[in-house]
Design brief:
This protein is mainly alpha-helical. It is 44% helix and 7% strand. Helix 1 runs parallel beside helix 4 and helix 4 runs antiparallel to helix 6.
């Protein structure tokens, strides 16, 4: 299933400790170490929504926690039964995990919480105005396009899984985006071909001009290539787990 060899990782902590972010990190570390992670599912159920919202009181804490939880839950579910990925629509849309007494889906976490209540198929331009109270309490208040190069949905072309820290989040998001985009971006004959993630969530990047600005800022393309045409490659949806990266 594409698992990469690794050495055992010890439990770590953020420089600015937050118990919820620490738990999300340790969930991933246990998965990476091939340990049983059922206890983390119980910990998620035991959370309280209001307390969680109060604890994750900055955008960096929210993103670190929810990206770690999203990535950990993908690994946890597919390790348990990788055939679940055969029905991808159900895999992402069906509520399956109790977090603070709320049954959530992957779409709830990604598009509702991480992306500030964006309509899934709205290309990043449409906000969902009719969302539950718990989502309003938990969601990130600003959009961050680089998260799309940090979330691992279980497919072969997905970005690898890193363990995100609130205290280093901006640095880590740039590192993960750079490493991923360098592997999927080609420049030839006046054309930049890059990840379709840009196209699917174009509004999160500010359209094609914003995509190019990000590619330039990360050093994936040069500033004199900014007038090149932009195209998007294919995505391999073959299930693939155990793809970790250190940042």
């Amino acid at each position: 299933m594409g698992c990469q060899p690794h050495t055992e990782t010890e439990i770590i902590y953020d420089d600015t400790p937050n118990s919820d972010v620490q738990m999300s990190q340790n969930f991933l570390i246990s998965l990476k170490n091939n340990e049983n992670t059922d206890d983390f599912i119980r910990q998620l159920a035991d959370l309280e929504i209001d307390a969680l919202a109060s604890s994750l009181n900055t955008s960096d804490k929210k993103l670190a926690f929810w990206m770690n939880i999203y990535n950990a839950l993908v690994q946890h579910r597919l390790i348990d039964d990788i055939t679940q990925f055969e029905d991808r629509d159900a895999f992402f849309t069906k509520p399956f995990v109790d977090i603070g007494g709320v049954m959530m889906s992957f779409d709830d976490i990604e598009h509702g919480i991480i992306r500030n209540s964006r309509v899934k198929l709205g290309l990043g331009y449409l906000k969902d105005l009719f969302v539950p109270a718990w989502e309003k309490k938990l969601r990130n208040t600003k959009r961050e396009g680089r998260v799309h190069f940090a979330l691992n949905c279980g497919a072969r072309t997905c970005p690898p899984v890193a363990i995100y820290e609130a205290s280093r989040l901006d640095e880590q998001l740039s590192l993960s985006a750079k490493k991923y985009l360098e592997t999927v971006t080609e420049v030839s004959d006046g054309t930049i071909t890059t990840s379709p993630l840009f196209s699917w969530f174009r509004g999160d990047f500010g359209g094609k001009s914003g995509m190019k600005k990000l590619l330039i800022s990360l050093g994936v393309i040069t500033s004199d290539q900014s007038d090149y045409s932009l195209e998007f490659g294919d995505y391999d949806w073959t299930a693939d787990i155990g793809n970790y990266i250190d940042l």
